[in-house]
Every structure is written in structure tokens, then in C-alpha cells.
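Name: Flagellar biosynthetic protein FlhB
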Amino acid sequence: MAEESDLEKTEPASPRRIEQAREEGQVPQSRELSTFFITMTGVATLWLLGDWMADRLFGLLRRSFAFEREMAFDHVLMLDGFNTLLSGALLTMMPLFLTLLVAAVASPIALGGLVFSPKALGPNFGRMNPLQGLARMFSVHGLAEMVKAILKSLLVGGVSAIVLWVNKDHLFDLMVEPLEVGMPDFADTVAFAALMITTSLGLLALMDVPFQLWQYHKKLRMTKEEVKREGKEQEGDPQVKGRIRAMQREMARRRMMSEVPKADVVVTNPTHFSVALKYDASRMAAPIVVAKGRGDLALKIREIARENKVAMLEAPPLARALYAHCELEQAVPATLFTAVAEVMAYVYQLNNWVAEGGLPPQPPAELPVPEGLDPGAPEE
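Structure predicted for Flagellar biosynthetic protein FlhB:
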């Protein structure tokens, strides 16, 4: 039962899942909202610019009935006249075309936002499969679309019938009115009917938009397993991250060990801590820590130092202080300068003794480590 519940899509879509769907061109869409936007825009444009457009079109119509004798014998003049009338008609209708185009583009953006997906433009041969087409027709979505189409037909037809029934006497009166009076009166009646039909389409859009949003988010629902997998992908698999950290630590350890042969001295404690120091007066303002470790790592540092004949000095308080307060590739703190300076002086004396012979230098005793810097010092 637990496995079945993990496979059921019961979890809401994550932001990443929604973003992936948008990249594939999947956004909520409502045909009813688009129809309402376009219809309302067309009605509003005709309401505002209808008189101007009608006057220009009537003027073009009158010009089209005017026939000059020269045009009958010259097809060039006839074509020029036709082009003039056609361009005039197109320019007159251009405001309507432009507003409808803007409405057609703005209606999907209002619901799903602005999305450009190259994937959605690619061919989808699966949609050409007749079996899938039949499956979509008889699916829940197809049934819902059929119900909406029937409801739209009933709503628009019902509103139209009501408008015609209410204005039936007025429509009959138009037949006896003069043309100059009847045409504007008829235009007002048509505009009122269009407004009522558009309003009914708006009510249908108000019902369709929540349904489309619900269906869109239902389609993008995820199983619990998908949510877990996505969380791992975003945060990183703990096992993979652990292996990466282990590899990084190993690489850092190897890099640190490669610096031990270049060190001037290794300060030890004598078994728990080891800190390798290097100093180049021409390039460094103070000695730097090139390697440090405790436990097995400290033993490994001492082993490499012995193999490469690097000087070692047993100074437990200083070793503990350097390990606790110094970072790799960083200079020793000023509070430990005095103690480290004595160590470096001993190293130089030791190198001279190895090169020239004589009496071996005595290692420094009781190096001055300020109080509070040695984490292993006994409490008073």
C-alpha cells in the first residue's frame, strides 16, 4: 500500500516542475477567455470607431459605383481604381485588425504569462496518431470541452433569442423608417446585441478559467517519489556529496603532504601533533604553515619529513598552539613570532652544522608560548 501511495500523483507541482513545463510550452490556456478577449475588443473598437469606419466605407462604396468612361477602355486605370478602393478599405479596417491581433496575443499572456518555447514549435507526430486522437475525444478533457461547447451554444443562442424577442417590435418598425434613420437605429440594436452576447461569453470565461487552472495544476502533480528525487537533485545526493567531500579532503591532504619535503622544520608534540613550517626571507614576511595534522596524519607528516631529511623539533606547547591557531598557507600569528623565530634560528644553526661540522646546536627549551594559545596547557 505504501508503494502504491508513493506512485500516485498527490503532491502539488514544485516550482521547478512548473518551470520545466513552461520551457516545453505547457501553460494554462482557456479558449473561452481568448474568445471573450477578442470579441470584446472587436465590439469595443466598433463602438468607438464604428461611425468613422462606416463613413469611410460608405464613401468608398459610392466611389466604386462611380464609373468613368476612360476606365472602360484602359485596364490600367481600372486596376488603379480597384487598388485605390481596396487599399482604402484595408486602411479603414486596419484599426479593427490591429486591436484584434493585440487581443489574440494578450489573452494567452493574461492567463499563462509570456512564454517562448522552441520545443513547442517542433513537430509532434504523436498528435497525428488517430488512436491518440480518439482517446483525447473520449477523455475527460474531451467530455469537458463538449459540455462547454454545448453550454456556449445554449448561452449565446439564448441571449440572442432574448435580445431579438425583446426588440422584435422595434425591428419591425425599422422596415418603415427612412434609410437615413433606420440604418443608425439598426446599428445601435446590433451593437446592443453584440454587447449582451459578449457579456455572456465573459460569464462563460469566468467559469472556464478556474477549471483550466485546476486541470493544468492537476496534470503537473507529482508523486512523492518524484518530489524526493527532485529534492535530491537540487540539494545533491548526500552519498554523492559525502564522496565528493572525501575526495576533496584526500586531494587537499595529498597536496599538503607534497609540501612537507619543502618545509624547513616540523614542530611535533611528540606523537599527537605535527606542524611543518617554511620561511623564505626574500618572499615571505613571516614563516608560513605548509602542513599540519594530528593523530595518524601527524605521524605521516613526521614520516615524510624523516624520509626527506627535514629538521624536526619536539616542542609540545608550540606544536599545539600552531595547530590550533594557524591555517594552511598562512603566516604564523604575531603572538607566536618570538617562539617561531627561536625555532628558525635553531634550524639555521642545524643546517650550518650539517654543512660545516663542529659542535651540534642545542635545541631551544621552553619556547615562549603566550598564555591562552596552548589548548593543551593545564588549567591553573
